[in-house]
Design a protein that fits this description.
This is Ribulose bisphosphate carboxylase large chain. This protein has about 140 residues and is of the alpha+beta class. The chain has one domain: Alpha-Beta Plaits (2-Layer Sandwich), CATH 3.30.70.150. It has 4 helices and 4 strands. Strands 2-3-1-4 form a 4-stranded antiparallel beta sheet, covered by helices on one side. The longest helix has 11 residues.
Length: about 140
């Protein structure tokens, strides 16, 4: 947990609703989400000593209590763009939400919000035949897909 971390315009910012297991402090739960969804692992990896992971790690920089909900918190996590492959929505989402939802220190976890820097979102190509073709296939108009 790094409350003194100042987010950058290039960070991907995520807000997770976190319900820690009994006895797990919210700061520890938030830090664990940040680590597990970026560079952290509970397994010893032989490549750990080859590079400094500090520039790639996610950082939980703020925790808020959810008003009216017992033992629920919003954990704000910043991820550096260097962690993600350009142009790959799949890579971004599997990194952020792929493995972390089975994390045992948490009773429940939900991604509430995600802010993606414009510079990164411009690397996504979009549908190969254009948005209108996708809307026609799905018969969905006048709203987000």
């Amino acid at each position: 947990y790094t409350p003194d971390y100042e987010t950058k315009d290039t960070d991907i910012l995520a807000a997770f609703r976190v319900t820690p297991q009994p006895g797990v402090p919210p700061e520890e739960a938030g830090a664990a989400v940040a680590a597990e969804s970026s560079t952290g692992t509970w397994t010893t990896v032989w490549t750990d000593g080859l590079t400094s992971l500090d520039r790639y790690k996610g950082r939980c920089y703020h925790i808020e209590t959810v008003v009216g909900e017992e033992n629920q918190y919003i954990a704000y996590v910043a991820y550096p763009l260097d962690l993600f492959e350009e142009g790959s929505v799949t890579n971004m989402f599997t990194s952020i939400v792929g493995n972390v939802f089975g994390f045992k220190a948490l009773r429940a976890l939900r991604l509430e919000d995600l802010r993606i820097p414009t510079s990164y979102s411009k690397t996504f190509q979009g549908p190969p035949h254009g948005i209108q073709v996708e809307r026609d296939k799905l018969n969905k108009y006048g709203r987000p897909l």
